[in-house]
Design goal:
Chain A is α+β, with helices and mostly antiparallel strands. Chain A is 19% helix and 47% strand. Chain A has one domain (2-150). Chain A has three helices and eight strands; from the N terminus they run αβααβββββββ. Classes of the chains: A alpha+beta (154), B alpha/beta (291).
Chain lengths: 154, 291
């Protein structure tokens, strides 16, 4: 995952994108924090594997306040901006996908302080996938938490 | 936003379950797996449900065995000697099987505390006689079909159905298997018997870790869809190991009307954790560990 982040960093600098942060706990879907974290004591191996799949490098796109997050578990396109210009507190809203199959939305608030970004929010995610597009009729709404390491500005 | 977040947590956005507890292979931590002694103990304990494995002999009799072979780890010859070669149950008649081998004669490394009780491999009919003592006991038939190592699925399903029809028990029951062909054959024989698709499949000789990781990746990315696989064979359920099960799959399966069974939970911590999930049953070698 760290290598992926470095690779993305290299690619994005060439394409005028930049790595904004790496989410160690991703707000996308809310599956890991709600479903896997409570079972870590009962069966840590599976929780650890699923943890890795949700770690998410997030790129700042050339359009201001627009971010693209990419993990194995989900991908997200999120608009995030401060409540007041210059504030550490932000609000965000965006769309999420599974292997780029659109499957839901998320919204939340975050606090960016130095190298840390902490977030809480709500995720609405459908059961739709490329293998089962009809799953878009089934929805799950979950509270989410995000913990990210923000890339230091040069 | 924070209020909504706390409200969702407090209101239980995550459903709670109240699953049945199934004695895996009759309760393999206590007695030899798939033995009459294990089934009698399950009935005496008043277990919710009992899970057992079925194969078929050369003369078409359904018998209880986890493997298509005589299990070398737990069975011996009649004089107590080791079973040195790979012997398929499908190649022996019932008489050859029961007069030649004893199972439950050796300690099983997977369940070392189980009491030994050497006995011939029981028939499905003998097991059903025991289950008749408790008409509320849910019967979980695990159909062990392995291509090339078992009779054709249609022949196996016929043998299982004949035993069930002959016993004519009032007990609720369902069948599970990890290959669609045996479940489809069973459905054709007994349309009223619910079936559950066991996934992922762990073929003999292949790395369980690799299979589990592959399943994990395909499920995480949404390439692999278990619910549609179950629906494609008209299954009423999904039977999954806890190592690969996914809470979102369980929720979606429940919304799709599928029952979910989880195997094999052999600690109090695991049973306690999954007892809060919206699943039909939890399968364990020792039902006494359940909360």
């Amino acid at each position: 995952m760290i290598l992926t982040a470095f690779a993305l960093s290299a690619v994005t600098s060439a394409a005028e994108l930049r790595l904004d942060r790496v989410d160690l706990i991703s707000e996308d879907t809310g599956a890991w924090i709600n479903y896997e974290a409570p079972g870590l004591l009962a069966y840590p191996t599976r929780g650890a594997v699923r943890y890795v799949t949700q770690v998410k490098p997030v790129l700042a796109l050339p359009v201001e306040h627009l971010y693209l997050g990419l993990s194995i578990h989900s991908q997200s396109l999120v608009y995030e901006r401060p409540f007041v210009e210059g504030s550490e507190f932000t609000w965000s809203a965006g769309l999420q996908s599974a292997l780029f199959f659109p499957r839901g939305a998320l919204a939340g608030v975050a606090w960016r302080h130095g190298p840390v970004r902490l977030a809480v929010g709500v995720s609405a995610v459908s059961g739709g996938t490329w293998a089962r597009p009809g799953g878009v009729a089934q929805w799950d709404v979950l509270p989410t938490v995000g913990v990210g390491l923000v890339r230091k500005e040069r | 936003m924070i209020t909504l977040f706390l409200t969702l947590l407090a209101c239980g956005a995550i459903d709670k379950g109240d699953p049945l507890i199934e004695a895996h292979r009759g309760g393999a931590a206590l007695w030899p797996e798939n033995s009459l002694a294990a089934f009698e103990a399950a009935v005496a304990r008043g277990d919710d449900a009992v899970e057992f494995d079925l194969v078929v002999t050369a003369d078409g009799v359904a018998v209880l065995s986890h493997d298509p072979t005589i299990r070398q780890e737990t069975c011996t010859t009649m004089d107590g000697g080791p079973v040195d070669e790979v012997i398929y149950v499908k190649d022996l008649t019932l008489d050859e099987l029961q007069s030649g081998y004893l199972c439950g004669a050796l300690p099983d490394a997977e369940t070392p505390n189980a009491q030994l009780d050497p006995a011939p491999m029981p028939t499905f009919a003998e097991a059903l006689d025991v289950f008749a003592q408790d008409p509320d006991l849910l019967l979980h038939l695990d159909l062990k079909y392995e291509p090339g190592q078992s009779p054709p699925p249609e022949d196996m399903a016929r043998a299982f159905a004949e035993a069930l029809r002959a016993a004519d028990l009032p007990n609720p029951a369902y069948a599970s298997a990890n290959l669609p062909e045996i479940l489809v054959a069973m459905k054709a024989e007994l349309p009223e018997l619910p079936i559950s698709f066991t996934t992922p499949r762990f073929p003999p000789g292949e790395s369980a870790a690799v299979i589990a990781l592959k399943s994990e990746l395909l499920t995480a990315t949404g390439v692999h869809d278990l619910i549609d696989q179950a629906r494609a064979i008209d299954a009423e359920g999904l039977c999954m190991p806890y190592q690969t099960i996914n809470r979102q799959t369980v929720e979606l399966a429940a919304q799709a009307g599928l029952d979910v069974q989880i195997w094999t939970l052999n600690s109090e911590r695991l049973l306690d954790h999954y007892s809060k999930w919206p699943v039909m049953s939890l399968i364990t070698d020792d039902p006494g560990l359940a909360p």
